[in-house]
Amino acid sequence: MPSSIFVRIYGGILLVIAAVALLAWGFIQAINDQRAASYRESMATGIFHLIALGISRQQGEARTAWLAEASKVMDSAISIVPADREQFTEDEVTHLAEGRAVFRSNEEQNYADIYSRIPGREERYLKTRMSKVSEQQAKALAVFFLEELGHYPGREDRRIQELQRFFPYPVLLMPANKAGLDRDQLARIRRNEVVLVLKEGSGTRNSSLRIVAPLTGTERVLVMGPLYIFDWMPMQLILMVAMAVLSIITIAAYFIIHPLERKLKKMELAVQNIRAGDLSARALVQGSDEISRLAHAFNGMAEHIQRLIDSQREMTRAVSHELRTPVARLRFGMEMLADTDDSEQRHERLHLLDQDVEQLNLLIDEILTYAKLEQGTLALSFEPVALRPLLDRVRQETAGLNTGHDIEVVVDNPEAEAEAEARYLHRILQNLAGNAVRYARSRVRLTAGVKGNSAWVRVEDDGPGIPEKDRERIFEPFSRLDDSRTRASGGYGLGLSIVQRIAFWHGGSVEVSRSADLQGACFTFRWPVRQNLRHARRHKTPVSDNTR
């Protein structure tokens, strides 16, 4: 089924958009999974590094008690595992050696295992299993940070700078009255409570959390944050994906539309070449879309125009040649008539002049018939034609020439019929039968039949036949194999050209061969039985005009 330009462009772009949408969705999911894992790891690194530092300072039973207290503060089970108990990947080993946390999520059971390396000579790791993140754990972060700063009295700011690399958000000490707290929050700070300051925005990009805790014995507070909630669709990611999607769609649209544009340019080049006088120019376009079919129609039109112009040139030369002989005879006869006083001779000269005029009339009729069949749009009235009566009529007309030949008619099915223009079908048989009796020795055979969707008529004779090398040339206008013999027999070299043009307009063909029985020439005309089926086929595959 030929493809529509609309379906090709719209459907192609629609498929591209659908494919790009799926690709973009998968890309965003993969990027966000990576971003989320990195976000969780960065958020967990700081607090678990502080816990690991705290554990590294404890020994014996004090470590066990400290670990139990830390688990209570975190509301999660915290344990120490040796290096050979857990199987870490190379990337995880690198992260742990750098003091970063390793985050392993188990979505089926809704928990996550977090690992952090405990500083010291012995290779041991802190393991925490968490099933939720709560306000208690946010406050625990400040508790562990304040405990760490307690080991560095007077050097708290410097210690914060050393630990800052483990935290993806700012951590600093500042006066309590400059921390942006309201009256109630300041009162809670004076009671040594940890305060969570939530800033709500229009979306995740503007919402944040700050953790504020009092530094014991001073007027300063520890401020951690702002901590921003994970943004699944950051503006940078949206812009990056949008640019990639637009680029892919643009490239795909180019490859969808450019072939059509290239075909149009080929057609434009062919039109320009024909306008410049190169009638052999054609649009070299392949395909089955509308532009390709238009190019094929254009090529057919250009071929037909070229053939008509070539035919017109040939006919002009041939007509001038054919008219020269009878006109010369007329001139000679008129001169002889002017010099003759005898009444009998004058009457004889007038009779010869009348024959020359009749010959001119016949030649002009043949030329007009051929020219009519050569025109671009010939109106034909197709109707069912019975083949047996038509062959009988042609046999009677040919026998009326009194040539003495035996003319035989053979039709397998007397009821056989096919759709055709009766007048032109009769003209084909008349021309072929006339040629046959002109060159036959004694026998001529007319046969016809219908087989499947094809009808055929055949004319055979027992004459000398037509050499194989000349079987194409005999269909050219004014072509004669034996010029002197054809002139003597009254032919003009247009009969077979007219036969082939009629065959073309019937969607058929004329074949020339040697008769198997009579050993002379054999002409076979084949055409579709139903012309409506022929036109339906021409819609899909145009009939080629191979007249010449």
Which stretches are poorly predicted, pLDDT < 50 over at least 5 residues?
Answer: 483-490, 535-548
Tally of domains: 2
Q: Could you tell me the strand content as a percent range?
A: 15-25%
Q: How would you write the strand order of the largest sheet? A: 10-12-13-15-14
Sheet of most strands:
5 strands, mixed
Radius of gyration from CA coordinates: 51 Å
Order of helices and strands: HHEHEEEHHEHEEEHHHEHEEHEEHHEEH
Shape: rod-shaped
Instruction: Report the total helices.
Output: 14
The helicity comes to 40-55%
First and last CA, distance: 32 Å
Structure write-up:
The chain has 548 residues and is of the alpha+beta class. The protein has 2 domains: 231 residues, no CATH class; 171 residues, Histidine kinase-like ATPase, C-terminal domain (Heat Shock Protein 90, 2-Layer Sandwich), CATH 3.30.565.10. It contains 14 helices and 15 strands. A 5-stranded mixed β-sheet has the order 10-12-13-15-14. A hairpin with a 6-residue loop joins strand 14 and strand 15. Helix 1 runs antiparallel to helix 7. The longest helix has 52 residues. The protein starts with a helix and ends in an 8-residue tail after the last helix. 23% of the residues are buried. The C terminus is likely disordered.
